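Internal ticket - ligand job 388, 4'-deoxy-4'-aminopyridoxal-5'-phosphate:
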Amino acid sequence: MFEALKPGQPDPLLALIAAHAADRRADKVDLGVGVYRDAEGRTPVMRAVKAAEHRLAETQETKAYLGPAGNAAFLDAMADLTFGVARPSPERMGALQTPGGTAALRMAAEVVRIADPAARVWLLEPTWPNHPPIFAAAGLSIERIAYAPAPGARPDVAAILDELRDARPGDVVVLQGACHNPTGQDLTGEDWAALAAFLNRRCLVPLIDQAYQGLGDGLDADAAGLRYLAGRVPEMLVTVSCSKNFGLYRERTGGVFVLSEGDGAANAAAAVAREARGMYSMPPDHGAALVAEILNDPDLARTWREELETMRVRLADLRKALAASHPALEPAGTGRGMFALLPINPDGVEALRTRHGIYMPGNGRINIGGLRQETLWQVAEHLGAACL
Ligand code: PMP
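stdout (structure tokens):
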């Protein structure tokens, strides 16, 4: 049976990692992989996480099953972190811990499919390349519209609303909460207000993918858009990831929140829990237990917030310096978070790699965290020269 399978396409990002690892040049630069890097180029375990791990090792008394909804203390703390003062009442919100933000998106897709298999999912492109396969895997059909008029340009909400004119009631619109991947260009307060009015008028359901809270303008500022929506739309999905802001990438720590009315939230939560049971049974606990430990302990929470702020400021400073270093890189200055999408074509990307040892995916997305202050001007010169 399996001999008839065709060879799989190599994942371009994994191929990039391998090519970078094999490059012997001492001054090579990795702007590809989407993980935070500190000034030494490392992706360290955060101090608050280490401390919570020590504490957990000492105090945890059992590793018995928790159930498909996962760690309740984690979900409670994440609901506060995500929604803040706009946290919906328990009757209005169902929650499920998931193996990372990826599975949160998949479970959000599953609950949409269970509720209405004919609902379509509207993706604003460019977006995270994993969005289309996740929604397709749940059997939902996907519509793609433009997020911005050009790569790396500011999103144009009037154009987005115009492109959404064919959306049907019950269709889902996927938006990123902050630190847009791959463009770095976020929606403004006015954009969120225009979207909320339109979604309500047309009975569309927003799905907010929140994967970088705290790495843009700060923990509360980065959640302002989704909090605004939460107070105004009757139904909404929110997926969260602790991969970046807690550095818990491989621990697979995330969750999905479903906001609805009447019995909608409780029924949706039961439906996703049932779905999870058949798919992976239960989410891994370790990362979620760490996040709960950190957020429920004032000292650990303070340490974590300070560390996150250091990361955020490093990214913002590098971004500012990058934008100031070459006229072609100026648009990156208006972005937030880890990424910027540079107007470099695949040939330019290839030339940067072969001539200068600068690595990035073919679409020109760079991880700002891969830059270093000491070499920034030199790298920026090459990047700027490669821009169209
Ligand atoms: N959404 C977006 C936009 C992302 O960039 C990512 C990760 N890179 C995720 C969700 C999910 O991340 P994870 O599954 O590692 O939590």
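Auto-summary: The domain at 50-297 is CATH 3.40.640.10 (Aspartate Aminotransferase; domain 2). DSSP finds 13 helices and eleven strands in the chain.
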